[in-house]
Design a protein that fits this description.
Layout (H helix, E strand, L loop, with lengths): L40 E2 L17 E6 L3 H16 L3 E3 L7 E6 L4 H20 L4 E6 H5 L1 H7 L5 E3 L7 H9 L3 E4 L20 E5 L1 E2 L10 H5 L3 E2 L2 H13 L4 E5 L13 H9 L6 E5 L8 H9 L6 E3 L7 H6 L6 H14 L4 E8 L6 H14 L3 E6 L7 H5 L6 H24 L5 E9 L6 E6 L4 E5 L8 E9 L3 E7 L1
Parallel strand pairs: 1-7, 2-3, 2-4, 4-5, 5-6, 6-7, 8-11, 11-12, 13-14, 14-15, 18-20
Antiparallel strand pairs: 9-10, 16-17, 16-19, 17-18, 19-20
Bound molecules: S-adenosyl-L-homocysteine and FE3-S4 cluster.
């Protein structure tokens, strides 16, 4: 989980593509789609939450997700909206009537991946002319013209505030029109929608949408709009429901998750409220912003047993000059002090981060400051990226993207190598220790073994004996790589 190729922002090792399946009433199906391609997109008013839109024909929907955990969570929301309206979610594009790509705009390579995938899906569309093809999420919001130019066969475009329109949009397309739903809606929080999650032990719960921080490199505020928080009582009910559904761990999601405020409660209130829910074993969150990391938050992490001793704390750069150009609102010194304070108050704190190399104006000396800070802090893991200029951001408009592609590549390779070494050493140091692991599922490589995560979000693999999925077990670490701990369950 260390390179830009991983397509992070995927904190906590989520997959790049996820699909969701669920069953609906078979009677709803009437498969008579008649569809012609029209160049004009139709924009209709947003549907109200109480409206139900009956499928007109195209009913089996396949959702493919790109990008961050927030997108995975949005796909669960899309699945919830569609199922509520009589659609079926399938886990294979070949059997689907509708294929939706839920996309990411954070870096150029995320967009290239989707454009290539669309070309491939166009072949499928040629074989199945009635197939509805949609692009949803951040890239739809950000690159309408680029998508319609590169892939004129796309039938619908929906931004992150318009998922409620999905059933209507599919019906519109089925009747022969294209559909465009890109109007930002700063009131949309989908608080009343029940997402459809894959079964498992860990659930991701969106507690906040949008971002108000406006880092100069970042497209998120433009595609996801202003920050808004879902009311605490609703979130507490969500977690109770997750417990009933068998989930053991909840990860609270937001772009600056610790700036959560629903008008009455802040993030600290939320952490306490979450850890009081009976049956939930672990609470995590991602990603907090260093400037919003209050003493209260640190105190809550230290005092709530269920809140894991782990934090993903994006650094971005070790140079205060670069941080200022990025408008990150903290200095390298303040970040260093924050980490020291957290380590002092929270025992065995595991820390991961995000780093960008080659930002506008980053000199070799600035880059060395990043290397030095990473070497000093010794993160457990890191997501590392080359700066990718995004249309419309302040950096794109006002700063020169002046570090060459080759140099960005060299700097990225340098910090990946540095971090791999540190991750390896930190994991080696755990050999002989016993760690608590939440059992998640069968190891992909060995059917006799389970895998799970430690409190610090490290992957552990161990023989299945005396354990089952969903249990917390104690594993004695016997060997380790930079990314995995291997061991055996002990009493
Ligand atoms: N606050 C959010 C950030 C989302 S973007 C969160 O972590 O939940 C995730 C990471 O992508 C950022 O922390 C940053 O390191 C990286 N990133 C964002 N914009 C980028 C760009 N234009 N080029 C390269 N990396 C970028
Ligand atoms: Fe992006 Fe900065 Fe917000 S990285 S998501 S603008 S905190």
């Amino acid at each position: 989980m260390t390179s830009s190729l991983m397509g992070r922002n995927i904190p906590f090792g989520a997959t790049k593509e996820n699909t969701y399946s669920a069953k609906v009433d078979e009677k709803m199906n009437s498969k008579t789609p008649i569809k012609t391609q029209l160049p004009l997109y139709k924009a209709l008013p947003t549907v109200k939450s109480t409206d139900r839109i009956k499928p007109r024909g195209s009913r089996r929907v396949y959702i493919e997700t790109y990008g961050c955990q927030m997108n995975v969570s949005d796909s669960e929301l899309m699945a919830g909206i569609l199922i509520q309206n009589g659609y079926e979610i399938v886990d294979d594009s070949d059997t689907a009537d509708v294929v939706l790509l839920n996309t990411c705009a954070i870096r150029e390579n995320a967009e290239t991946k989707v454009l290539n995938r669309l070309k491939h899906l166009n072949h499928l569309k040629r074989q199945k002319p009635n197939l509805v093809l949609g692009v949803c999420g951040c890239m739809a919001q950000h690159m309408k013209t680029k998508i319609t130019d590169a892939a004129p066969y796309v039938d619908l475009l929906l931004g992150p505030d318009a998922y409620r329109n999905l059933p209507m949009a599919i019906n519109v397309v089925t009747s022969g029109d294209a559909f465009l739903g890109l109007r930002p809606d700063k009131g949309e929080d989908y608080a009343d929608i029940a997402p459809i999650r894959k079964e498992g032990v860990r659930a991701w719960l969106t507690i906040q949408r949008g971002c108000d921080k406006m880092c100069t490199f970042c497209i998120v505020p433009f595609v996801r709009g202003r920050e808004r928080s879902i009311p605490l009582p609703l979130l507490v009910n969500d977690v109770k429901r997750l417990v009933d559904e068998g989930f053991k761990e909840v990860v609270l999601l937001g772009q600056t998750v610790n700036s959560y405020h629903d008008g009455q409660h802040n993030f600290v209130d939320l952490l306490f409220a979450m850890s009081e829910v009976e049956g939930i074993e672990r609470v995590r969150f991602t990603s907090p912003h260093p400037s919003d990391a209050t003493d209260g938050m640190i105190q809550a992490m230290a005092s709530c047993d269920k809140v894991c001793n782990q934090i993903h704390l994006p650094l971005q750069s070790g140079s205060t000059k670069v941080l200022q150009a990025m408008r990150r609102t903290y200095t390298a010194e303040a970040y260093r002090d924050l980490v020291a304070k957290m380590r002092e108050r929270i025992p065995n704190l595991a820390i991961s981060t995000d780093v960008i190399v080659g930002f506008c104006g980053e000199t070799e000396a600035d880059f060395m400051e990043t290397c030095n800070l990473m070497a000093e802090i010794r993160y457990d893991s890191a997501f590392m990226f080359k700066y990718s200029a995004r249309d419309g951001t302040l950096a794109h408009r006002t700063l020169e993207d002046d570090v060459s592609e080759e140099e960005k590549g060299r700097r990225l390779r340098t910090i990946i190598e540095l971090q791999e070494g540190i991750s390896h050493e930190l994991n080696q140091a755990l050999i002989g220790e016993t760690v608590e692991v939440l059992v998640e599922g069968e190891s992909r490589r060995d059917a006799d073994k389970y895998h799970g995560k430690t409190d610090g979000f490290k992957t552990a693999v161990f023989p299945k004996v005396n354990s089952k999925i969903g249990e917390l077990v104690r594993v004695k670490v016997e060997s380790a790589t930079a990314h995995t701990l291997l061991g055996e369950i002990v009493a």
